[in-house]
Input
Amino acid sequence: MITKYKYVFLIAVLAVFGLDFANAQEQKEEGKKDNEKLYRQLEFFNLRGTNAVDMAIGASLITGDFPQPEADIFFKIGYKRFITEQIGISFTYNKYNLAFNDAFHQGFMSFDLNLEYLISPYTSISPFIYGGYGYNADNDFETTGAKVQGGLVIEFVPFEKVGIKLFGEYNYVMSNEANPIIMEESNISFFRVGIGVNLYFGGGKKKEKLLEEVDTVIKSNYIK
Output
Protein backbone atom coordinates (compact mmCIF):
# COMPACT_ATOMS: atom_id res chain seq x y z
CA MET A 1 0.00 0.00 0.00
CA ILE A 2 2.86 2.34 0.91
CA THR A 3 4.53 1.52 -2.39
CA LYS A 4 1.35 2.47 -4.22
CA TYR A 5 1.31 5.90 -2.52
CA LYS A 6 4.95 6.38 -3.40
CA TYR A 7 4.16 5.83 -7.07
CA VAL A 8 1.24 8.27 -6.90
CA PHE A 9 3.44 10.86 -5.19
CA LEU A 10 6.21 10.35 -7.75
CA ILE A 11 3.77 10.74 -10.65
CA ALA A 12 2.36 13.93 -9.09
CA VAL A 13 5.86 15.39 -8.66
CA LEU A 14 6.79 14.53 -12.24
CA ALA A 15 3.54 16.08 -13.49
CA VAL A 16 4.26 19.33 -11.61
CA PHE A 17 7.81 19.49 -12.96
CA GLY A 18 6.53 18.65 -16.44
CA LEU A 19 3.98 21.45 -16.36
CA ASP A 20 6.57 23.89 -15.03
CA PHE A 21 9.02 22.90 -17.78
CA ALA A 22 6.32 23.23 -20.46
CA ASN A 23 5.34 26.64 -19.12
CA ALA A 24 8.99 27.76 -19.10
CA GLN A 25 9.41 26.59 -22.70
CA GLU A 26 6.25 28.42 -23.73
CA GLN A 27 7.45 31.63 -22.08
CA LYS A 28 10.82 31.21 -23.77
CA GLU A 29 9.16 30.85 -27.17
CA GLU A 30 6.98 33.89 -26.50
CA GLY A 31 10.08 35.87 -25.53
CA LYS A 32 11.81 34.74 -28.71
CA LYS A 33 8.84 35.86 -30.82
CA ASP A 34 8.77 39.21 -29.01
CA ASN A 35 12.48 39.64 -29.74
CA GLU A 36 12.02 38.81 -33.42
CA LYS A 37 9.20 41.36 -33.69
CA LEU A 38 11.31 44.04 -31.99
CA TYR A 39 14.31 43.34 -34.24
CA ARG A 40 12.08 43.63 -37.32
CA GLN A 41 10.83 47.00 -36.12
CA LEU A 42 14.41 48.10 -35.47
CA GLU A 43 15.32 47.15 -39.04
CA PHE A 44 12.70 49.61 -40.31
CA PHE A 45 14.39 52.45 -38.42
CA ASN A 46 17.85 51.27 -39.52
CA LEU A 47 16.75 51.48 -43.17
CA ARG A 48 14.20 54.27 -43.16
CA GLY A 49 12.65 56.78 -40.76
CA THR A 50 9.36 58.28 -39.69
CA ASN A 51 9.67 61.18 -42.19
CA ALA A 52 10.97 61.60 -45.72
CA VAL A 53 11.64 64.25 -48.33
CA ASP A 54 10.35 62.92 -51.66
CA MET A 55 11.94 64.10 -54.95
CA ALA A 56 11.53 62.70 -58.46
CA ILE A 57 11.86 63.45 -62.16
CA GLY A 58 10.32 61.73 -65.15
CA ALA A 59 7.81 62.06 -67.96
CA SER A 60 4.07 62.64 -68.31
CA LEU A 61 1.90 61.27 -71.12
CA ILE A 62 -1.72 62.13 -71.88
CA THR A 63 -4.11 59.24 -72.61
CA GLY A 64 -7.38 59.01 -74.50
CA ASP A 65 -8.33 59.91 -78.07
CA PHE A 66 -5.72 62.61 -78.57
CA PRO A 67 -3.67 62.30 -81.79
CA GLN A 68 0.02 61.47 -81.40
CA PRO A 69 0.45 62.05 -77.66
CA GLU A 70 3.98 63.05 -76.67
CA ALA A 71 5.90 62.35 -73.49
CA ASP A 72 7.02 65.52 -71.74
CA ILE A 73 8.92 66.60 -68.63
CA PHE A 74 7.65 66.05 -65.10
CA PHE A 75 9.14 66.58 -61.64
CA LYS A 76 7.89 66.63 -58.07
CA ILE A 77 8.92 67.37 -54.51
CA GLY A 78 7.07 66.50 -51.34
CA TYR A 79 6.97 65.33 -47.75
CA LYS A 80 6.04 61.92 -46.34
CA ARG A 81 5.10 60.90 -42.81
CA PHE A 82 4.82 57.28 -41.64
CA ILE A 83 1.96 56.57 -39.22
CA THR A 84 3.14 52.97 -38.78
CA GLU A 85 6.01 51.03 -40.38
CA GLN A 86 3.72 50.24 -43.33
CA ILE A 87 1.25 53.11 -43.63
CA GLY A 88 2.21 56.66 -44.53
CA ILE A 89 0.69 59.94 -45.70
CA SER A 90 2.39 62.09 -48.35
CA PHE A 91 1.86 65.54 -49.81
CA THR A 92 3.59 66.51 -53.07
CA TYR A 93 3.87 69.42 -55.47
CA ASN A 94 4.03 68.20 -59.08
CA LYS A 95 5.02 70.19 -62.18
CA TYR A 96 4.40 68.60 -65.56
CA ASN A 97 3.59 69.24 -69.23
CA LEU A 98 1.02 67.60 -71.52
CA ALA A 99 1.44 67.60 -75.30
CA PHE A 100 0.08 65.97 -78.45
CA ASN A 101 0.40 66.36 -82.24
CA ASP A 102 2.20 69.73 -82.13
CA ALA A 103 -1.28 71.23 -81.61
CA PHE A 104 -1.22 71.31 -77.84
CA HIS A 105 1.62 71.85 -75.39
CA GLN A 106 0.80 73.23 -71.98
CA GLY A 107 2.24 73.26 -68.49
CA PHE A 108 0.31 72.14 -65.43
CA MET A 109 0.82 71.61 -61.74
CA SER A 110 -0.90 69.51 -59.11
CA PHE A 111 -0.97 69.30 -55.34
CA ASP A 112 -1.50 65.68 -54.32
CA LEU A 113 -2.38 64.07 -50.99
CA ASN A 114 -1.85 60.30 -50.87
CA LEU A 115 -2.20 57.38 -48.52
CA GLU A 116 0.71 54.94 -48.98
CA TYR A 117 1.18 51.29 -48.07
CA LEU A 118 4.74 49.93 -47.83
CA ILE A 119 4.44 46.19 -48.47
CA SER A 120 7.77 45.02 -47.00
CA PRO A 121 9.03 47.66 -44.54
CA TYR A 122 11.81 45.52 -43.02
CA THR A 123 13.74 44.82 -46.24
CA SER A 124 15.94 47.05 -48.38
CA ILE A 125 13.86 46.35 -51.51
CA SER A 126 10.12 46.84 -51.25
CA PRO A 127 7.17 47.77 -53.45
CA PHE A 128 4.53 50.13 -52.17
CA ILE A 129 1.21 51.31 -53.51
CA TYR A 130 -0.54 54.62 -53.01
CA GLY A 131 -3.66 56.51 -53.94
CA GLY A 132 -5.34 59.77 -53.12
CA TYR A 133 -6.87 63.06 -54.09
CA GLY A 134 -5.34 66.09 -55.79
CA TYR A 135 -5.91 69.61 -57.05
CA ASN A 136 -4.83 70.31 -60.64
CA ALA A 137 -4.23 73.68 -62.36
CA ASP A 138 -2.55 75.19 -65.38
CA ASN A 139 0.45 77.47 -64.90
CA ASP A 140 -1.75 80.58 -64.58
CA PHE A 141 -4.43 78.96 -62.39
CA GLU A 142 -6.99 79.92 -65.06
CA THR A 143 -8.16 76.32 -65.42
CA THR A 144 -8.41 74.10 -62.36
CA GLY A 145 -9.93 70.78 -61.45
CA ALA A 146 -10.02 68.10 -58.80
CA LYS A 147 -8.35 64.79 -59.57
CA VAL A 148 -7.69 61.33 -58.21
CA GLN A 149 -4.49 59.34 -58.63
CA GLY A 150 -2.93 56.00 -57.82
CA GLY A 151 0.48 54.48 -58.33
CA LEU A 152 2.95 51.65 -57.81
CA VAL A 153 6.53 52.13 -56.59
CA ILE A 154 9.59 49.89 -56.27
CA GLU A 155 12.04 51.27 -53.71
CA PHE A 156 15.64 50.18 -53.08
CA VAL A 157 17.53 51.40 -49.99
CA PRO A 158 21.27 51.07 -50.83
CA PHE A 159 22.37 53.23 -47.89
CA GLU A 160 20.85 53.98 -44.52
CA LYS A 161 18.06 56.59 -44.84
CA VAL A 162 18.36 56.86 -48.65
CA GLY A 163 15.77 55.20 -50.88
CA ILE A 164 15.93 55.12 -54.69
CA LYS A 165 12.63 54.43 -56.44
CA LEU A 166 11.02 53.74 -59.79
CA PHE A 167 7.33 54.51 -60.09
CA GLY A 168 4.32 54.73 -62.36
CA GLU A 169 1.17 56.73 -61.65
CA TYR A 170 -2.27 57.12 -63.23
CA ASN A 171 -4.17 60.42 -62.90
CA TYR A 172 -7.77 61.30 -63.72
CA VAL A 173 -8.69 65.00 -63.74
CA MET A 174 -12.30 66.12 -63.34
CA SER A 175 -12.35 69.67 -64.71
CA ASN A 176 -15.15 72.19 -64.92
CA GLU A 177 -17.22 71.50 -68.07
CA ALA A 178 -17.73 75.25 -68.59
CA ASN A 179 -13.95 75.74 -68.58
CA PRO A 180 -12.35 72.50 -69.84
CA ILE A 181 -8.65 71.84 -69.39
CA ILE A 182 -8.10 70.82 -73.00
CA MET A 183 -10.43 72.16 -75.71
CA GLU A 184 -13.77 70.32 -75.51
CA GLU A 185 -12.61 67.70 -73.02
CA SER A 186 -14.03 68.24 -69.53
CA ASN A 187 -12.19 65.23 -68.05
CA ILE A 188 -8.72 63.99 -68.97
CA SER A 189 -6.36 61.27 -67.80
CA PHE A 190 -2.61 60.90 -68.01
CA PHE A 191 0.32 58.83 -66.79
CA ARG A 192 3.39 60.00 -64.92
CA VAL A 193 6.46 57.75 -64.65
CA GLY A 194 9.89 58.45 -63.27
CA ILE A 195 12.80 57.85 -60.96
CA GLY A 196 13.28 59.50 -57.61
CA VAL A 197 14.77 59.48 -54.15
CA ASN A 198 13.34 59.38 -50.63
CA LEU A 199 15.57 61.03 -48.01
CA TYR A 200 14.46 59.63 -44.64
CA PHE A 201 14.90 61.22 -41.24
CA GLY A 202 13.39 61.04 -37.76
CA GLY A 203 12.46 58.10 -35.57
CA GLY A 204 15.48 58.27 -33.27
CA LYS A 205 13.41 58.28 -30.06
CA LYS A 206 11.29 55.35 -31.23
CA LYS A 207 14.46 53.43 -32.08
CA GLU A 208 15.92 54.08 -28.62
CA LYS A 209 12.69 52.87 -27.01
CA LEU A 210 12.78 49.67 -29.09
CA LEU A 211 16.41 49.05 -28.07
CA GLU A 212 15.39 49.38 -24.42
CA GLU A 213 12.55 46.89 -24.96
CA VAL A 214 14.93 44.43 -26.65
CA ASP A 215 17.33 44.73 -23.71
CA THR A 216 14.45 44.15 -21.24
CA VAL A 217 13.27 41.03 -23.08
CA ILE A 218 16.82 39.62 -23.22
CA LYS A 219 17.32 40.15 -19.47
CA SER A 220 13.91 38.66 -18.73
CA ASN A 221 14.71 35.54 -20.76
CA TYR A 222 18.09 35.24 -19.04
CA ILE A 223 16.46 35.34 -15.59
CA LYS A 224 14.01 32.63 -16.62
DSSP finds two helices and nine strands in the chain. Strands lie at 51-62, 69-70, 72-82, 87-100, 104-118, 125-138, 144-159, 162-175, 187-201. The mean pLDDT is 81.
